[in-house]
Amino acid sequence: MNFTDLGLSPEVLKAVDEVGYSEPTPIQAQAVPFVLMGRDILGCAQTGTGKTASFTLPMIDILSSGRAKARMPRSLILAPTRELAAQVSQNFEQYGKYSKLTMALLTGGTSLAEQERKLVRGVDVLIATPGRLLDLYERGRILLADVKILVIDEADRMLDMGFIPDVERIVGLLPKIRQTLFFSATMPPEVRRLSDAFLMNPKSISVDPPSSAAETVSQVLVKIRGDQKDKRAVLRTLLKSEDIASALIFCNRKKDVDIVYKSLKRHGLSVAALHGDMSQPARTETLATFKAGEVPLLVCSDVAARGLDIPAVSHVFNFDVPVHAEDYIHRIGRTGRAGRSGNAITLALAEEAKGLDAVIQMLGKQIEEIKVEGVEPWSEEDIPVRGRGGRGRGRPSSGKPTSSRPPAKKAARPARAKKERAPREATPAEPTVQTPPPSETPIESVEEVKVTPVALDGPTGGAVVKPKPAAAKPRRRASKNKNGTDTSAGEASFGEHTPAFILRPVKVA
User: Fold this and answer.
1) pLDDT score at 53
2) Structural domain boundaries, residue 467
3) Edge-first strand listing for the sheet containing 103-106
């Protein structure tokens, strides 16, 4: 099959031919015809398989008819990172050179004024990261009521970076009737839930099993008994011994990117660094020099693991075992692209054994282990024991107790607890005191002690009136009760401030 069999226009076919492609990749061959038919797409394919062209090529033909209105883009492509968004825009520039489509790229770190000017003129294709898009929407600079095609690229990366709430909000602002193209390298449950919510009767396309590496990439593992300093020494040895055209060196943390970069530079290697704390102009300049081959080595964080289409990358070094096993696939997917061969080398300390096991379990096979001269590999006995407190707690297995709690304290615990419980064992003998019967309530017993007999002027003729122990509480202020007895005398004994419980009406026996 070639591109002419996919139903694309002559203008697009001409642009594809000039780029140098003659045969579509499997994801392109399956997705392009259904996108041209207007179907929703659920695509699952690893990086480097041509996913971007599988939606950019048919979108160019679909959008060729029609005209965009001011501040109302006709299509929207959401990408998790600036680099991936820039990669998508480059695809539209390459394949849409013979089509009169307008395009805008909305990412952080660039001028808002220039982006607003493009939106005012009207754009057919809007490529954006979620944060910048919502920023412009809240400023009233963009309307999303005319979006006909929505593309969510690298959905699993959106999930990892915490963009899912923003994506859900953006989708809620779009028209209900639209075409949605949903692409992801992996399909965890949360991503599957989103696809079910966003898509309508989609065509599912899965080129390779999720979390599988390209067959053209050779994967090897180097186990290093030591620390980060020893690992940097091994990295330098491999960089000097391997036939490297260009290489990406991945670290888990930004500060480690700086440390490895300075170490390699100090030892005379031509290297650059890339991570998320760099300004957008600096990131763009660094990528440009690396793509041009001016700098053969690029130390980077996972911000560069997606969306970098650099065919000349011959090697990928995992200086750190990735925290998430899925990131291993995205990292090594930067080499061996479009059928080329590539090499992926992972360096692992004993403390990274857990992450390494997760990667091996995801791949479903062991990674070939190689030995470097002068480097001693670690064994199972060197793996740190992880206590209940989390990663890294405990001691290496050396015959010593792994818990920091002294054994004497453990033995003393039961005796101390028994001594505290001893007084409570005698308490059952206490309930020998008889509780008063219901008629002798605490309130009435108080009345017997504290209420002094008072001589009253009234119908009793000066007789002394004593409150009866079992008598019911008098009614509220009233001259007579149901039996005709005057109750004013009982109330007068309290003066003007009769307690509320005395005033409560009760039935007199």
Assistant:
1) 93
2) 442-503
3) 103-106, 125-128, 75-78, 149-152, 179-184, 41-44, 203-206
